[in-house]
């Protein structure tokens, strides 16, 4: 979900995953239910389709660019390489190449966005599960996303890519720019339902819920009655996410040490290569990751940072960048702004108190009603066009017309408002926290309750106290609840 911020959450997971890997290589995470006897699992098994959130599936790129931003960037690649998630591309300097490949260019005439010239981006694995199970295709300790849930389903008798599949999409774009996706999703659901003789259960996370709601709002009721059993909604940002305001205004500032740390799995990939008996000279040409000679350059750089910075992470309070050189947040902000989904996710006026100051500067207070001025004041007028393009997509929260199970985390400090000094917007603001799952504000997640009684199908709300936005996917309660929904009559 919520744009760049989620990466931070993701990466803390990744780090944990790395530690677990080191401590107990065979640990498979949480205990999973298994069937007492195979027979009890056999009957009625609705097919499952997963709709991931923002940043929640892999993206691949192929390059043939007229120019590049830096010497080390590739201009041309022979084949597609993983652009997201690929840790090797997120280190200092290489990140410039990455930003220049993943950014979108907005056309004010057509109200649509496209990749820079010579960059071809595709979404791998539609109808399969791999691209949402692990965001990093090497699966090396990192980027685990839907794996726990998919693996649990497999243990209950499901088969990957057969009766459990995922519908990944280009999460940089809002539904108005992803029309073909919804046709493909419809076809996928019909095909799976007909093969199984059972309607489908949709499981969405984060922004995937808005995608799913948009999709269901477009379908006739008869189609939904026939093909959809229920919609399991995890961490839904129905009314937007306050954090995206900060993402758009000031970007996320990471220290060199933080970058080095998140990229630190690369040295470990060296070990896995050794285990596979690959010879060293193969390294420089290993893959075309969009940068020249990726391995040697990055490996030594990272090793250095790792050694230098390792200690900082345990001694510094979060967000304290004192004494650490800081990578320009402007580059990251530039990328974040270019995705129309970022503007799509700003808090919605219908559901937010209109007098609540979300952004405060010494001269101005901005509420949900002041976005046009805000975009103008941060010198990002295109953003206001993007907001207007995307705002009507699901703003009314029209009931989905299928059974809904709405699961959301609470009790985790979640950004709610931002106070800037006169350096606005190019600085980190003071944060005001409220209730939520660390990303999605509670106010936004619980909006599904407005559907109770507004549609004939049941709407169930389930609060997961203390559950963080991404961690909830690993939670035993979540997995057990999904099972109860799947195997209910
Ligand atoms: C925007 O799209 C229009 C119509 O396709 C095209 O003529 C125009 O050159 C585009 N503008 C930019 C800046 O690419
Ligand atoms: C790597 O090579 C060694 C010796 O040549 C061999 O014993 C080992 O089985 C090989 N490992 C793999 C994973 O092939």
UniProtKB/TrEMBL annotation:
Transmembrane segments annotated in the record for this chain: 295-316
Record has Transmembrane as a keyword: yes
Gene Ontology terms: biological process: lipid metabolic process
Molecular function as annotated in GO: O-acyltransferase activity
Organism encoding this protein: Cyclopterus lumpus
One Pfam family matching this protein: LCAT
Annotated keywords: Membrane, Signal, Transmembrane, Transmembrane helix
Secretion signal, residue range per the UniProt entry: 1-29
Protein name from the UniProt record: Phospholipase A2, group XV
Similarity annotation: Belongs to the AB hydrolase superfamily. Lipase family.
């Amino acid at each position: 979900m919520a744009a760049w911020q989620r990466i931070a959450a993701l990466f803390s997971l990744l780090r944990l995953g790395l530690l677990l890997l080191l401590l107990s290589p065979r640990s498979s995470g949480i205990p999973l239910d298994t069937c007492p006897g195979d027979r009890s699992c056999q009957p009625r098994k609705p097919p499952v389709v997963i709709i991931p959130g923002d940043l929640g599936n892999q993206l691949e790129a192929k390059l043939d660019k007229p120019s590049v931003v830096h010497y080390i960037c590739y201009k041309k690649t022979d084949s597609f390489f993983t652009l997201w998630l690929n840790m090797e591309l997120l280190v200092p300097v290489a990140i410039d190449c990455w930003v220049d490949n993943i950014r979108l260019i907005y056309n004010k005439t057509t109200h649509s966005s496209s990749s820079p010239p010579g960059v071809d981006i595709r979404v791998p694995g539609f109808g399969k599960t791999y691209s949402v199970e692990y965001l990093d295709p090497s699966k090396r300790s990192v980027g685990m996303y839907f794996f726990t849930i998919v693996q649990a389903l497999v243990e209950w008798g499901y088969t990957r890519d057969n009766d459990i599949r995922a519908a990944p999409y280009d999460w940089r774009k809002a539904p108005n720019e992803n029309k073909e996706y919804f046709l493909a999703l419809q076809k996928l659901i019909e095909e799976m339902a007909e093969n199984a003789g059972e309607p489908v259960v949709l499981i969405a996370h984060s922004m995937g819920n808005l995608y799913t709601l948009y999709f269901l709002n477009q379908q006739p009721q008869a189609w939904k009655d026939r093909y959809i059993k229920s919609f399991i909604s995890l961490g839904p940002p129905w009314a937007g996410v306050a954090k995206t305001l900060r993402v758009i205004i000031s970007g996320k500032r990471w220290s060199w040490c933080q970058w080095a740390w998140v990229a630190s799995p690369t040295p470990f990939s060296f070990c896995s290569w050794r285990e596979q008996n690959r010879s060293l000279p193969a390294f420089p040409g290993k893959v075309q990751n969009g940068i020249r000679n990726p391995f040697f350059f990055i490996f030594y750089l990272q090793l250095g940072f790792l050694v230098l910075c390792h200690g900082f992470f345990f001694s510094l309070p979060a967000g304290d960048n004192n004494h650490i050189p800081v990578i320009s947040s402007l580059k990251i902000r530039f990328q974040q702004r270019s995705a129309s989904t970022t503007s799509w996710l700003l808090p919605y006026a219908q559901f937010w108190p209109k007098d609540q100051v979300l952004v405060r500067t010494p001269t101005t207070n901005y509420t949900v009603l002041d976005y046009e001025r805000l975009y103008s004041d941060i010198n990002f007028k295109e953003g206001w066009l993007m907001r207007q393009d995307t705002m009507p997509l699901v703003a009314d929260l029209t009931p989905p017309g299928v059974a809904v199970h709405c699961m959301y985390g609470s009790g985790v400090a979640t950004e709610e408002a931002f106070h800037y000094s006169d350096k606005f917007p190019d600085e980190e603001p003071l944060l005001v926290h409220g209730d939520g799952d660390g990303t999605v504000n509670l106010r936004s997640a619980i909006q599904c309750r407005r559907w109770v009684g507004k549609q004939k199908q049941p709407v169930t709300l389930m609060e997961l106290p203390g559950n963080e936005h991404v961690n909830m996917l690993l939670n035993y309660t979540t997995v057990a609840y999904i099972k109860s929904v799947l195997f209910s009559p």
